[in-house]
Amino acid sequence: MSDAAIGAIAFVTLLTIMVGARGIRVARTPDDFMVAARQVPPALNAAAISGEYLSAASFLGIAGLVVSQGLGALWYSVGYTAGYLVLLLLVAAPLRRFGAYTIPDFAIGRLGSRGLRQTATALVLVIDWFYLLPQMKGAGITLQWVLGTPYWVGAATLGVVVSCNIAMGGMKGITFVQCFQYWLKLCAIGIPALVLLIAVRHSPTVNLTPEHAPVFTHATVVDLTQATGFTLPRPATATVTGVLDQRTFSDQGVSLCACRHVAGADTKIGFAAGAPVPVSLAMEPSSGGSWDSPFLTSGTNGAHPLAATYGVIIATFFGAIGLPHILVRFYTNPDGEAARKTTLIVVLLLSTFYLFPTVLAVLTRLHAPQLYLSSDSDSVVLALPSLLLPGLPGELLAALVAAGAFAAFLSTSSGLLVSVAGALSHDFMNRGVKAFRWCAISAGVVATCAALLIGRFSLALLVGWAFAIAASSFCPLMVLGIWWRRLTRIGATAGIVIGGGSCLAAIIATMLGVAESGWGAVLLGQPALWTVPLAFGVMIVVSLLTQRTVPANVSQVMLRMHLPEALSRQAHRTIN
Amino acid sequence: MCLTLALTVTASFPVIAAMVPAVARVTVAGVPLTLIVLGFAFYPVFLAVGWFYNRQARQLEARFTDLVDPASQRPDV
């Protein structure tokens, strides 16, 4: 790709390191490193949370999934936002008032069990890993697309930059970085979306209407870099250069039937305006449902779309509560009231951001349907600007998008590494700044290596699975821990292990391809559907059976979580 | 209450669309209803519910603080 894109990515990376380096002077004690000394105002904190949250899945994955699978994929963006509303309503203020660094800290503070603490730490690592891998994949495909480097170069670059940055600045640096990254990401997706919306001549919305198979709005040459199978919804003539259906052409007119075709690598097929858009066999929504269906088919091969949709709704709505790298940010609020304010601003910032992937996906559907034939739907957002706006403007927009995408991987994986390194150094090693630094670096190395194995899964799907695990393990722990006095440590441990464990098992089964169709595919591909109720159920039932082990200080802990600060300060003064 | 409201509003859309397939086929000025609802309409609802909840929570906590300790300082209310 262009030099502009290379320059933009280098600029973002350098800027990230520099803004992060500012934190070194501020960060002095382990406490500074871990939660930025709890002195971050709501607006800054909200931008930092959003910057950390908007990952590769949001920036590239959702638009790609909407293009390839249809409007139902928008449930991901709705769910990612709604997750914060649920978090606001159920945990934001009490969690801050409780005052602990991490979810394992919450577990030990609320229920006083070392065993539970270690289980929780192990699960933090599982969730963070699941979330970290798609970021590495995103970096891999972005650099692949921009520079033509092999997949591993992008993943390795990201790993090195992030590990060093965190080892140097800790979380204070990261708060500034994340805040800056949110605004960068918003610009990098918002400006191209708006410019393209204005620049592209408004053609009729013909490609959006339900009964209509998409057509090319102007004469288009589809450049297939690798062998691709596709079908045509109706017969058409095309100019072909290369191999099609095992015959070699050089710039010849061919009439194609409405049936399956196979094009060889490096084949160019020119379609006239009004010709039907070929549907890639790899990307055809396998449900047979149309593009505008409000249901979701990803990860389940199109079986039982309504159930799959609810699977994603449950996972994303309740998953945000259980994401360790997000929860750690709530301790940086000065008090419970500020935590609520922060969360509401986060909902606003996310809502604004998620308008734009939708716009880009719809523009792709309308004006660049040839991207349906590209091999990987996750690169749609990167490819769109230069397709719709030829010349320098398009190139600059493409550079901006690439920079924003890289910002997305940088910020999310920074947050995840802080969380992984925090959990490792806090719970498994002697605490302290030095241990934290070493954990950050080694965790980065391991993640980079693992990222090389997951190339074939879509970004949104991978991140959706991280949400599913969080929703079926930490979400019940947080919600019941905050609102239910009778929770016991045995109940909590059982719920986390059975809920999180069965969810993880289902995801691994899907990855190995155990069930390809029917209810099996839905229940394994969207496990949140049954593992979230299961986790809540187990936690409640086992707690009720072990009521003798309810912690003795439960009233005191509950009071600390739910008492407004004005009163707890008062109480504190009275006691002293 | 806020939670129930928000969840009902959001989670009912797939059920409605499944029971009345015509809903998913509605277009407004050429744009599918699904796109409008999923792409744009939910976000203002989330914001409104969140804002309302924050206001309620703040007022409730202020009233509670007054009730327990009328002399307490409440600089932020």
List its salient traits:
heterodimer, A: 576 residues, alpha+beta, Sodium/glucose cotransporter, 2 domains, 4-stranded antiparallel β-sheet, 3-stranded antiparallel β-sheet, 7% strand, B: 77 residues, mainly alpha, two-stranded antiparallel ribbon, 3 helices
Structure description:
- Chain A is α+β, with helices and mostly antiparallel strands and 576 residues long.
- Chain A folds into two domains: 3-200 and 291-565, Sodium/glucose cotransporter (Up-down Bundle); 215-276, no CATH class.
- Chain A is built from 22 helices and seven strands.
- Chain A has helices at residues 3-26, 30-35, 42-53, 56-69, 74-90, 92-98, 103-111, 114-147, 151-199, 305-319, 324-327, 336-367, 380-388, 392-428, 433-451, 459-471, 474-483, 489-512, 518-525, 528-545, 554-562, 565-575, and strands spanning 220-224, 228-231, 236-244, 247-256, 260-263, 267-271, 279-280.
- In chain A, strands 1-6-3-4 form a four-stranded antiparallel β-sheet, with no helix packed on it. In chain A, strands 5-2-7 form a three-stranded antiparallel β-sheet, with no helix packed on it.
- In chain A, strand 3 (236-244) and strand 4 form a beta hairpin.
- The longest helix of chain A is centred in the N-terminal third of the chain and has 49 residues, at 151-199.
- Chain A is globular.
- Chain B has 77 residues and is mostly helical.
- Chain B has one domain.
- Chain B has helices spanning 2-19, 21-25, 33-68; strands at residues 27-28, 31-32.
- A two-stranded antiparallel ribbon of chain B has the order 1-2.
- In chain B, a hairpin with a 2-residue loop joins strand 1 and strand 2.
- The longest helix of chain B is centred in the middle third of the chain and has 36 residues, at 33-68.
- Chain B is elongated and about 60 Å long.
- The mean pLDDT of chain B is 73.
- The chains are: A alpha+beta (576), B mainly alpha (77).
- The interface between A and B is large, with 43 and 46 residues.
